[in-house]
Write a structure and sequence with these properties.
3 domains; alpha+beta; 12 helices
């Protein structure tokens, strides 16, 4: 085994992946990935992978290799700065003693069911398939890793064959039924994801993610056709939240005919949810800012760092939901009746609840719109309204018109009436 007079702090690393495509006929789409392997099982599997990788690169004996006996989904791999690989490289460096680099193979096992280093513990979220990834990391002197990186990007995915023995070992160790196994680099994984997102008209999402993953300097922004705005700096995303009234009156919907406001806001909400969920899943911190006319004008005139500064001047929205107060009577009369309109879409579910409360004499006390900002915000709103009715002894009525209701003249949401509810077909006699 060769040694090199290189300090651990001077070592570089380059990462690869074993991609495991599950057989959809035999995999549970709602299941969780398997638990990490024991030290013994991880060591046996590492030997198989090393044997497969060595001939691809004309020998790897001069390099260190470290891998965890665990599987991850791609959202755990593709995160700003690729922290999983950094943690693996740090563990390898921590195992080195003295200033002499001696390459060796390190397989990390979890005899207690988890790794002692939290950064490499897989999340094992339900529905993580159909692609699971086993990461590995080469470690060595700078020149050796630079040469390896060029070769890996050029040939690993095309020429890196997973042997039948390794394929069988992987499936037995993790208890999986694999449709295909292949080696890939992080660049390969990124390229495949870009193709998928671009095919679904989500190229701006890819560009936002790439900027954060590779820790590009400066600011990258994207404004979608529907008016959704996202600005990425480091691992943070700034985005504007529009209530329906704001979107329709001074926001991106202001140029739309009144008859198209419902469809337009629904499209805006769909993309907003899609982008935010993806950005958060890939490790970015999303900062919601409530839109206002002054900010709208400022963002139309500036970009880059100036746009980021304008967004940071406004406190971000906290919590899982937003309450937009439209009217509040100064009367201290208790709420006796509460009518709740569930503005919902068949694809998106609930977009907003309009809450109208009356006193015993039928006088309007409050008119509010409750917007879920995150999935858990929906239940939080429901629980809050149920509790409010219970505390005041108010009668509650929930109307489900099955669509977004708004005033075309006022370009604002409105509460439903019984006349807005869908007609029920007559039952056969």
């Amino acid at each position: 085994m060769a040694t090199t007079d290189t300090a651990a702090s001077e070592l570089r690393h380059y990462a690869g992946l074993l991609a495991i495509e599950l057989d959809p006929q035999r995999a549970d789409p709602t299941g969780t990935p398997p638990a990490p392997l024991s030290v013994a099982a991880a060591t046996a599997l590492a030997s198989h992978l090393a044997k497969d990788l060595s001939p691809v690169f004309g020998g790897i004996e001069h390099l260190g290799l470290i891998l965890p006996g665990a599987l991850y989904d791609q959202t755990e791999i593709l995160r700003p700065g690729f922290p999983l690989f950094g943690a693996l490289a740090d563990l390898y460096r921590g195992s080195a003693r003295g200033s002499t680099f001696t390459p060796h193979l390190i397989a990390l096992g979890a005899d207690q069911g988890f790794f002692p280093v939290a950064a490499i513990n897989p999340l094992r979220r339900s529905g993580s398939g159909p692609l699971l990834l086993l990461p590995f990391c080469f470690v060595g002197p700078s020149d050796d890793i630079a040469r390896l990186a060029r070769v890996m990007e050029d040939i690993l995915m095309q020429q890196g064959q997973v042997s039948p023995a390794t394929g069988e070992a992987v499936q037995q160790a993790f208890g999986l039924a694999a449709l295909n196994l292949s080696f890939a680099t992080v660049g390969d994984l990124c390229a495949l994801l870009r193709v998928q997102l671009e095919a679904n008209d989500l190229l701006p999402l890819w560009e936002l993610l790439e900027h954060a993953w590779f820790e590009r300097s400066g600011v990258h922004s994207a404004t979608l056709d529907g008016g959704n705005r996202f600005l990425v700096a480091d691992d943070h995303v700034h985005t504007l939240f529009y209530t329906f009234d704001d979107w329709a009156q001074f926001g991106p919907g202001r140029v739309r005919p009144a008859t198209q406001l419902g469809d337009g806001y629904r499209d805006w909400a769909r993309l907003q949810r899609q982008y935010v969920m993806a950005l958060e899943a890939y490790g970015l911190h999303v900062r919601w800012v409530l839109a206002n006319p002054q900010l709208e004008d400022k963002l139309a005139a500036v970009e880059g760092e100036a746009a980021k500064a304008a967004l940071r001047e406004i406190p971000c929205l906290s919590g899982d939901y937003l309450v937009e107060a439209i009217f509040q009577n100064d009367s201290e009369n208790p709420e006796c009746r509460m009518t709740i309109t569930n503005h919902a879409d068949p694809e998106l579910g609930t977009l907003v609840y309009t809450v109208m409360s009356l006193d015993a004499g039928g006088q309007l006390l409050r008119l509010e719109h409750h917007y879920p900002l995150r999935p858990q915000g929906l239940n939080a709103i429901i629980d809050r309204l149920i509790q409010r009715c219970a505390e005041q002894g108010a009668e509650r009525q929930v109307l489900h018109p099955g669509r977004l209701l708004y005033s075309e003249t006022g370009r604002s949401l409105r509460a439903a009436t019984v006349a807005d509810l869908p007609a029920h077909p007559e039952r056969p006699h």
